[in-house]
Amino acid sequence: MYARTGFITAVYKINRSLTRLKPTSISPSTRPLIWKHLYSTAASNSDVNRVHVAVNDDRVSRISSSIRVIQDFPKPGIMFHDITTMLLDPVAFKHTIDLFVERYKEKNISVVAGIEARGFIFGPPIALAIGAKFVPMRKPNKLPGAVISEEYSLEYGTDIMEMHVGAVQAGERALIIDDLIATGGTLAAAIKLLERVGANIVECACAVELRDLKGQDRLGDKPLFVLVSST
Amino acid sequence: MAAPTSDGNRDGVAKDDRIPRITSAIRVIPDFPKPGILFQDITTLLLDPVAFKDTIDLFVERYRDKDISVVAGVEARGFIFGPPIALAIGAKFVPMRKPNKLPGAVISEEYSLEYGTDKIEMHVGAVQEGERALVIDDLIATGGTLCAAINLLERVGVKVVECACVIELPDLKGRVRLGDKPLYVLVS
Known about the structure:
By secondary structure, chain A is of the alpha/beta class. Chain A has helices at 5-20, 31-41, 58-66, 84-87, 90-104, 119-130, 185-196, and strands at 51-53, 68-71, 79-82, 111-115, 133-137, 147-153, 158-164, 173-181, 200-210, 224-230. The longest helix of chain A is centred in the N-terminal third of the chain and has 16 residues, at 5-20. In chain B, helix 1 (19-25) crosses helix 3 (49-63) and helix 3 (49-63) crosses helix 4 (78-89). At the A-B interface, helix 5, helix 6 and strand 5 of A face helix 3, helix 4 and strand 4 of B.
């Protein structure tokens, strides 16, 4: 559903050849160079096996056209992708949730982590539909109980993301949701928090990707799924 | 107020077999955000998928045949409960946000805090005159934020059918502050 067959075959072949190169006889200092070489000589772009974009069908078209782009917010030069207009179209909003639910419902996911605040809009409906718990990842000093914190970089300075102690158990399979991925900084912080408690992150999922900002590069080996990929 | 209605609602507080599980899923944390406050933490409710689903179902059952086209949720915990209700009843979801978060043109309403004031904002054009709306938050304390949300919606000609919260802190008399606007809660 999410890619053409030839594409899937290419991805499979790339993955298989990468796996074959993993033997321990390759010294750690050489290995990174080989990985980099293989990624850059892969058929199309080096990220094909990590970023999945939903097939552009009728549902995705409706979703895409319901998102409003606002220039120069929060500051000059930025084109802000405003999902609030999609929330005003109940059909588009339902399609958005359905696309995520269809992808994740049979993946034994027990945790949906949503990033404050717009991740709180998309995460809970998905969690409810797949029978998972919803875990809010919040700005500092909002969560009332004991928390673990992760600091992450902003363009200028840093910020902190927090999660409640005990919300997630080691070994749980998790999904991380936000409305949009830009630089990937907040998603990377969420990944760290969940991994620190031993969760297994299955995928990061966003409605919109700003692909020129290459956010997926900050996700490490975690795959990313988006509905709309924008420049 | 009136005697219990046929759906088990007495005085704006739900009565249903699913309520005990919801109530026990909510964690109370003393002295947060400051000494003397008993904070009602709904994040533990969200960790119990059955209790969370029951919470949403109770609201959906109440509102689905009421011709509601707008569910307004107050940032940030209203964003957790509002959207699932909106999706189930086929309404739009309108986020009511702290200042400078919404990117487009907004209307703002100022309201009092214990010390000082705060503002809540809504996008221009999100709602139309004559629409019927529900306002959702996780909890009602003094009712200040809910009143501000009601004012914003009424200023653009929307009819606020009811305010709905998971939890009410009755001693803080938020229900009184809402005046003629009905309030429905699951746990009081």
